[in-house]
Structures are given as structure tokens and as C-alpha cells.
Amino acid sequence: MADVLVLGGTGRTGRGVADALARDGLQVVLVGRDGNRLREAAGGHGHRTLVAAGVREVADTVRAVRPAVVVNTVGPFTATAGPVVDACLAAGSDYVDLANDLAAVSRLLARHAEAERAGRTLVTGAGFGVAATEGVVVRLCRDGARTGRRAERVRVDMVPSLALQAGRLGDALAGTLVEGLPGVPGGRRFQGRRFAGGRLVAAPVGGAPRALVTPDGDRVVTASMPLGELLAAHRASGAPFVEAASSEVPTGALARIALPPAANLLAVGPLRRFAARRLAAVEFRARSAPRVSSWGHAHVRWQDGTSAEGWSRLPEAQAATVAVCAETTRRLARGEGRPGARTPVASFGPELITSVGGEFVDGPSRPDARVDVGGGRGRR
Ligand SMILES: NC(=O)c1ccc[n+]([C@@H]2O[C@H](COP(=O)([O-])OP(=O)(O)OC[C@H]3O[C@@H](n4cnc5c(N)ncnc54)[C@H](OP(=O)(O)O)[C@@H]3O)[C@@H](O)[C@H]2O)c1
Questions:
Q1: Which of 2, 46, 348, 358 has CB 3.0 to 4.6 Å from 353, enough for a Cys bridge?
Q2: d(Cα 258, Cα 267) in Å, to the nearest integer?
Q3: Could you report the per-residue pLDDT of 78-113, keeping only the tens digit for each?
Q4: Which residue intervals define the domain Saccharopine dehydrogenase NADP binding in the entry (predicted)?
Q5: How far does residue 13's CA lie from ligand 1's centre (Å)?
């Protein structure tokens, strides 16, 4: 019997996770839509392979194999997670995915009670950004709770250091980027989001830019991006005002003007499909990681007006995603999951970060880091 089914077993993340799990002695089956690519991906690692062309076939495979854990790396997760989770709950399998968009993460978390009833664990957002930022928020809020403080305002920033392999961007990532926020309350489908007064409200993509200096001295600018980090930080802190930002959002003056209308254009179906096809075909040239480390950052303002700040340091972002996903899967395969639907750090605590070689760096940013580059002041 297989311990773990890896859906998208030919992909960058699927292959990395499968190889990491096999090194621990777990029986891994790679699932994909093309037998030749699967055999190539299985290579010398000894993984079994199964061809399943569409999401229905994948769900049937899960029901037939009944593995301990299913790892889903096939985006857009708004399309794939639902049927696969149905199959997992029926088969008695735990589930992990790499979703990082608000729509997919919120839909998965909404299945908490159902997962509890089935006695199964569902983990979404098992990649770099959600785990890196959530880990810092949980630690800061634990410390705050010891002195009776409650969080009022939280901002999280994800600062991935991403090396690129030469190749196409691919359908999964392009679909995830373009599919937007179907069904997420608080704004239009292609607007950003933040929490205000405990509710999701609209926020401009690329808004609230802020300059930060990492503990290594790297200067970055982060800006608003409606990612799974936002939900994870809100749930971890209970703060009524939360915003999530990323250093991957273009923040120049032109980008600030162009991003909101460009996002609006994606609301038009044919344009969205055209954009997804063009994006999937984009060829990357190999690029080395721009910084030594990837960082998660959080700033918490307490109800008493004081604040706290901290960082998590992780390796190159794709390696960090593979490590977080593999460690989450390993723990589920060992039967350490709690029934329900959660994000990775909510499932296993901030120690998940240190168990994958990350570290927390407490304390405020360097003094020159708190430069607001416009748009962020007065809104929170
Ligand atoms: N949360 C995070 O931090 C994080 C980090 C990295 C990636 N991600 C997300 O994880 C997903 C995978 O990323 P990746 O970099 O590993 O992508 P990738 O290298 O392009 O791999 C995608 C995999 O999905 C399969 N696939 C794509 N479209 C499919 C379809 N319609 N039906 C069946 N299989 C399909 C591909 O199979 P073929 O070989 O047959 O094309 C491939 O195995 C993306 O959605 C990305 O957004 C999240």
C-alpha cells in the first residue's frame, strides 16, 4: 500500500516532495496525466507511477489506493482541491496542498467541521509564504498573550528569495495566478483584500508599499497582495485589522497606476483565458536566488498601543516550499495530524519552521527599515 500519493508528480514541487519523502523510507506514488513524463520524474528514486488524466480520475485513484496522505500540487486549487478532498474524506486519507490564493485557502479551511467529523486532517497553504509569516505571528502573539496583550493590527510580509530553473512557467502556476478570487467576500473578484474591523474588505493589489531591511541588511519593498498569508495571519492573531504584502509585487509608480486596471481586465473571461495561456508559455531563463535567505516578517500592534516585530529566515523559496510540504506530509503520515482543516503552523506550531532548518529572528527591524514609501500610512 502507498503511504503518499503525490498529485502533479512531474512538477517542480511534486518531484521535490516525493524525493524527500522517499529518502525517509515512505512509499510514494507519483500521479500525473502523462506516463512518459511520470516515468522520467520517477527516475532512479523508485517511486511507483499512476496515470490519471483529469481531476475525476485522480479522485477515483485516491478512492482506490486509499493512501495515508494525498499531496496535491496541481493548481488552480479552486478547481482541483474540492473533488480530491471529497475522495480523501471518503478514503480515510489526510490531505496537503500548496494553495496560496485566498479563494482556495478559504474554501479548504471552510471544510474544518466536515474533516473533524471524518477524523481526517486537511492542511492547505503548505508552502513558503503562509508558513513563514504565520510562524512569526504565532510566536509574537504567544509572547503578547503572556503579558495580557491582544493584537489590534497585523501586517505580514513575505520576502521569497527564488531561484529560477530554465523552462516554462506552466499551466498550474499560470492558472493559480490568473484565476483570481472567486467567491471571496469583501470586494470584487480581481481586487485585493485586507481585514478591517474583523471583515474582509477590498484593498488595491500593490497598495500600501513599505520598505523593509531584512536582518541580513537586504533592502526590499513589499506591497499588498491577497494571498493565503492574510487569512493565516488573521486566524493566528485574532486582530481586527490585518494586511498581507509580498516583495514579489511590482511597486514602482507605473505599476501602482497600472495594476488595479490590469487586474480588472482579468474579470473578462476570454481575456483571462488568453492571459493564462500566455503566462503558462512564458519561458524563464535560469536565475540564481537574489538573496541568501527568504524571509517572513510580521509587525503586530497591540491594543495598548505598543508593538512587536519579528522575522523567520528560510532557505531559497522553492526549497523552503518543498521542505514545508514534505515535513507536513511526513507528520501526517506518522499519524500526528489533528482532525480538521488548518494551515501548516496552525497544525504543527511554529516549530514546523525550525524543523525544516528555518530560524526566528526576534526584535524590531533595523531603524532605517521603517520607511513608508507611500500609500500605507493612515489606512490601517
Ligand atoms: N504555496 C506556495 O508557497 C507555493 C509554492 C510553489 C508553488 N505553488 C503552487 O503549486 C502549484 C505547483 O507549482 P509547481 O511550481 O510545482 O508547478 P509545475 O512545476 O508547473 O508542476 C505542476 C504539476 O501539475 C501538473 N498539471 C498542471 N496542469 C494540470 C492539469 N490540468 N491536469 C493534471 N495535471 C496538471 C503538471 O503535470 P504535467 O507534467 O502533465 O504538465 C505538473 O506535474 C502551482 O499551482 C503553484 O501556484 C505554491
A1: 358
A2: 15
A3: 999 999 999 999 999 999 999 999 999 999 999 999
A4: 4-123
A5: 7
